[in-house]
Design goal:
Largest sheet: 7 strands, parallel
Strand content: 15-25%
Oligomer: single chain
Helix content: 40-55%
Structural class: alpha/beta
CATH superfamily of one domain: NAD(P)-binding Rossmann-like Domain
Distance between the termini: 40 Å
Number of helices: 11
Strand order of the largest sheet: 3-2-1-4-5-6-10
CATH topology of one domain: Rossmann fold
Radius of gyration: 20 Å
């Protein structure tokens, strides 16, 4: 039985990756911090390892003791008040860990799969083809995206690393907390707002579709490639929010928030940030991300190499997610 280590296993995507790996019959190790919650990691088949990416000796010992065949490196930070933490955790820790894994496991390591993000490449706004692909020059709009891009470049520079990189677009599903705010907004205020322009092209991927293709990739013979992951369709925010409203059986009021209103809000939050020394979620680089008009991405290689096709429509995925939120008293 192949042994797989999944880092960041206590998080939203990580916990779903653990479930998928177990369902595939893999000897599954969940890499977590000593302080991590195991709320979504209750299967008795899970084996746990504590990870401290600052302790290289402990990492080497852990890898030596377990001799993994495959690693999915999913650990990272998506939101922090200090930009330096993005580069420390998402870039430096990732590259160091990959080097240690390759040096320790050597020929036994068949695959090191890194979960990156479409934000590493930015939007398709200025592309000739109108789509984000491996053929365009990366242009991250956020510090988070830049930290992921630096990690990618560092990983590709490691000679002999059996690397694959997957870049999901916006991921949602049961247990997700950031996009869950849309569900809360729709339910509480009975509104379905679009930001800036109702015609902005968004892309999404349901977590069950994502983890299925990730495990397909990590168990394949393919190395040295990178892929974007979405459901293969383009969506408008009004449709995404409309499906949420339908799943909640609510009639809502739809409208568009002009960018100038958000720009004014950013000025206010910027002043607050100077006083508090923190970084608000509504900040200039997040506004730059929000103003992108096209997040379409090319998944042709993913389809070709792994016969990938999203099993869930956006509507069905949202309805299933809503039922989970209700069943778990989130809504």
């Amino acid at each position: 039985m192949s042994k797989i280590l999944i880092t960041g296993a206590s998080g939203f995507v990580g916990s779903w990756l653990v479930k998928e790996a177990l369902n595939r019959g893999l000897d599954t190790f969940a890499g977590i911090r000593s302080t991590s919650s195991k709320k979504f990691l209750q299967d008795d088949r899970i084996k746990f390892v504590n990870l401290d990416f600052t302790d290289h000796d402990a990492l080497r010992q852990m890898l030596k003791e377990n001799s993994f065949d495959m690693i999915i490196h999913n650990a990272g930070v998506t939101r922090t008040h200090q930009d330096s933490i993005y580069f420390k955790v998402n870039s430096e820790y990732t590259i160091d860990f990959a080097k240690i894994a390759l040096d320790t496991l050597r020929d036994n390591l068949k695959k090191f799969l890194f979960i990156s993000s479409i934000e590493a490449y930015g939007s398709a706004d200025d592309t000739a083809e109108g789509v984000v692909s491996n053929d365009i020059k990366p242009s991250p709009r956020t510090t988070y995206g830049l930290s992921k891009l630096r990690a990618e470049k560092g990983l590709f520079d490691i000679a002999g690393l059996p690397l694959l990189i997957l870049r999901p677009t916006a991921v949602f599903g049961p247990g997700e907390k950031d996009l869950f705010e849309f569900w809360q907004t729709v339910k509480r205020f009975r509104i379905t707002p679009s930001v800036g322009d109702a015609e902005i092209k968004y892309s999404f991927v349901y977590v069950k579709d994502l983890v299925r293709v990730v495990v397909d990739a990590v168990t394949s013979d393919i190395t040295g490639k990178s892929y974007f992951v979405s459901d293969g369709r383009i969506h408008k925010m009004k449709d995404f929010l409309g499906h949420i409203a339908d799943s909640l059986s609510l009639k809502t009021f739809g409208f568009t928030i002009p960018f100038f209103v958000l720009d004014a809000a950013v000025v206010v939050t910027g002043l607050i940030d100077k006083v508090t020394g923190k970084k608000s979620l509504l900040n200039p680089e997040q506004m730059a991300k929000a103003k992108a008009r096209n997040w379409d991405c090319d998944i042709a290689d993913l389809v070709k190499d792994f016969d990938y096709q999203a099993e869930f429509s956006l509507q069905d995925a949202i309805h299933e997610t809503t039922q989970w939120y209700k069943s778990n008293n989130w809504l």
